[in-house]
């Protein structure tokens, strides 16, 4: 069997014909080389075609070239638009003034209302009737002016916030104080007297 295979390969490699992109190999083999018992004594013709492909040597595998270690600076943040210092922009419904000022007044009002109730036992209506109204108006005017001065200078609360005392924490505390003051007044109205 090895002899037949060697004969076949030598014959096939020895006969090359054809001019196209396919090479035609032709050989005449004795039938006993193929070991077919039915065709003993007759010659068989074998033809095969192979597409000619250029043999390229394998490219050497190179590691990627090291990149230069140039550090690109981080992108600079875009400058924030400057806060408007117009009176109408600051006190607009969505402006920086109203909610912050109302929240600060509500925080002071809630704490002072609870403190007076604990000290004297007066409800909110009695506190306002017994001289609390001038204190409320004076405190509201002073706190409003103190809150508006930085806004008119273009200083925002976000630029001064840091750590635990952030601008968002102040807004949330003011919102809770507003709700607490309303709940205190409503509870005292339903109860008919001071909460404590």
Automatic annotation (TrEMBL):
Residues 43-83 are annotated as: Disordered. It holds the Pfam family Chloroa_b-bind. Keywords: Chloroplast, Membrane, Plastid, Transit peptide, Transmembrane, Transmembrane helix. It is a multi-pass membrane protein. GO terms for cellular component: chloroplast; membrane. It comes from the Eukaryota. Belongs to the ELIP/psbS family. PANTHER family: UPF0041 BRAIN PROTEIN 44-RELATED. This is Early light-induced protein. It comes from Canna indica (Indian-shot).
